[in-house]
């Protein structure tokens, strides 16, 4: 019930406009968002690298409504790729196709993303195409599979274990040698599309994790769930899969203690660090994912 409540809030445009313009809203979002500007996120990335962790940077935004917005979004990513290279940061970029104009014109979004991918390859980087809600799943996978042969190893995508279709998608993507970030999923989906019970989502996560680790492709196991992490480590050790053959991934501001503990144990860690003024939907989905985040923010608000 709490999950559905926060997901519904994430889609409320009036609340979003009010929150993103308020000082209180920006202060609360600071737990999960690295600031509003490019310089903010680059400084946070450098500090994260110093802790022995890689980074994936996301300029927050989705569902732009015209070509000019999409071009502006892309320009910021071009700047980001140049700054990552210039500062020699251990980081790559994540983006959403709707932020690149998918709702406006599919060919426009594909063209913009391809230009960014070519830029990423020039600076020896990597581009992750994030997964959005189920209306965009097939389009995201089709685009990634279409482009990957042109830039092998330089583009990856995301698979959500709560979707019933995900095992077939994982098998197809692995056959193509495409890097996957495996997560549980953070959108509200109907039961005919997604598993409604957490137990089934978790079981599917473990099943998909095992396929990924055995594939020979470098994937990201994205979870803060200690049970899922323990299952991953146990499987890797039983199959003699070395720590440099995959990485764990976690969100900025969530389970920092666990992030650092895994690094100390010799596992690779990549932190997903978002930034930007359009933080509200992302913030609400983080609250929907984990009720402990709500309690944490309430305690800090009362201080």
**What is the number of beta strands?**
8
Tell me, rounded to a whole number, the average pLDDT. Answer: 89
Rg (C-alpha, Å): 18 Å
What's the helical proportion of residues? 40-55%
Coarse shape: globular
Number of helices: 13
Q: State which percent range the strand residues make up.
A: 5-15%
**Class of secondary structure makeup:** alpha/beta
Main sheet record = 8 strands, parallel, barrel
What is the element string, with H for helices and E for strands?
Answer: HHHHEHEHEHEHEHEHEHEHH
The N- to C-terminal Cα distance equals 28 Å
Structure description:
This protein has 303 residues and is α/β, with parallel strands linked by helices. Helix content is 51%, strand content 14%. The chain has an 8-stranded parallel β-barrel, surrounded by 7 helices. The longest helix is centred in the N-terminal third of the chain and has 20 residues.
């Amino acid at each position: 019930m709490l999950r559905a409540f926060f997901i519904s809030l994430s889609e409320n445009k009036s609340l979003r406009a009010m929150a993103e313009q308020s000082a209180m809203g920006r202060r609360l979002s600071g737990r999960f968002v690295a600031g509003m500007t490019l310089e903010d996120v680059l400084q946070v990335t450098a500090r994260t690298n110093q802790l022995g962790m890689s980074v994936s940077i996301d300029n927050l935004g989705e569902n732009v409504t015209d070509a000019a917005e999409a071009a502006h979004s892309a320009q910021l990513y071009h700047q980001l790729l140049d700054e990552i290279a210039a500062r020699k940061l251990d980081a790559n970029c994540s983006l959403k196709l709707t932020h690149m104009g998918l709702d406006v014109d599919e060919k426009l979004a594909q063209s913009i993303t391809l230009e960014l991918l070519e830029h990423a390859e020039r600076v020896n980087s990597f581009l992750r195409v994030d997964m959005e809600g189920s209306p965009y799943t097939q389009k995201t996978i089709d685009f990634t599979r279409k482009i990957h042969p042109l830039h092998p190893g330089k583009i990856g995508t995301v698979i959500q274990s709560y979707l019933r279709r995900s095992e077939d998608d994982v098998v197809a993507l692995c056959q193509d040698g495409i890097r996957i970030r495996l997560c549980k999923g953070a959108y509200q989906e109907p039961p005919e599309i997604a598993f409604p019970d957490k137990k089934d989502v978790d079981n599917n996560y473990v099943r998909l994790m095992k396929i990924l680790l055995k594939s020979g492709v470098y994937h990201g196991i994205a979870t803060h769930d200690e049970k899922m992490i323990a299952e991953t480590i146990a499987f890797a050790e039983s199959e003699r899969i070395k720590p440099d053959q995959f990485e764990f991934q976690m969100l900025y501001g969530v389970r920092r203690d666990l992030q650092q503990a895994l690094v100390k144990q010799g596992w690779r860690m990549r932190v997903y660090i978002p930034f930007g003024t359009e933080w509200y939907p992302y913030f609400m989905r983080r609250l929907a994912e984990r009720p402990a985040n709500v309690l944490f923010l309430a305690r800090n608000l009362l201080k």
